[in-house]
Amino acid sequence: MHEKILLVDDDVELVEMIRDYLSREGFDVVIAHDGETGVREALSGSYAIAVVDVMMPGISGIEVLRRIRSESTMPVIMLTARGDDTDRIVGLELGADDYVPKPCTARELTARIRAILKRIDNAGGNTVRAIKAGALCIWPEKRKVEWAGQVVDLTSTEFSLLEVLARNAGQIVSKDELSKLALGRPLMRFDRSIDVHLSSIRQKLGTLPDGRSCIQTVIRKGYMLIKE
Prior knowledge:
By secondary structure, this protein is of the alpha/beta class. The protein has helices at 12-24, 35-42, 61-69, 85-93, 106-124, 156-167, 175-183, 193-204; strands spanning 4-8, 28-32, 49-53, 76-81, 98-102, 131-133, 136-139, 144-147, 150-151, 215-218, 222-225. Helix 6 crosses helix 8 (193-204).
C-alpha cells in the first residue's frame, strides 16, 4: 500500500511537478489548492503526512496548520519563503514537524518527507521497553510520553527529539547529533528549528522540584536531559 501524501499549495505548476516526482517515488499524492480544502482533507485521517505552503489565498498555511494541530498530530511540513524566519518560527511553535524554504526541489522535499516517515516507521517496529528518566516515561513503540503519570501530547518531531535526549539522559547531545538522529538530516547553518521544538517540549513537560526544566541548555555544546 502506497503512503498517501497531501500537498496544500495554490502554485499549480510547482505542486504538479512535486506530485509527478513523488508518484515516481511510489507515493500516492492528493493536491488541495486552498486552505479550507487542505484542512478538510488533512483531518480526514487518510494521509501519512501533509505539506502546506504558508502563502495561500483565503486562509494562510499558518492557519491551516493551527486547525490541523487543534485536532491531529499528523506530521506537517511547511513550505516557507526563503529567508522568512517569522513564518518559519511561528509554524514550528504551532507544531510543524519541519520546514522547507521555497523555491525548493522535489528531490529535497521528498528527502524530508522520507526522513519523517522513516522515523515513525522505525518507532513502530521498536519493541524496546519504556525509557524512564525521573518523572519522564517514554514508550517508543507507542510513541507515547508521560510526565509524572500524565500523558503529554507531542508532535512527531517533538517526540523524536525527546526520545533521543531520553536515550542519552545525563549526557550532552549536540544540536548536530539531534538533527541527524531526530530530524534525519544534518544541521543547517542558522537553523533554529531544534531550539523552537525544544522550547515547545519544555512548555508541555512539567518542571523538576527545584523549578528547573528537565531539558537543560549547555552553552555552545548542546542539550541534556536531566536524569533525576
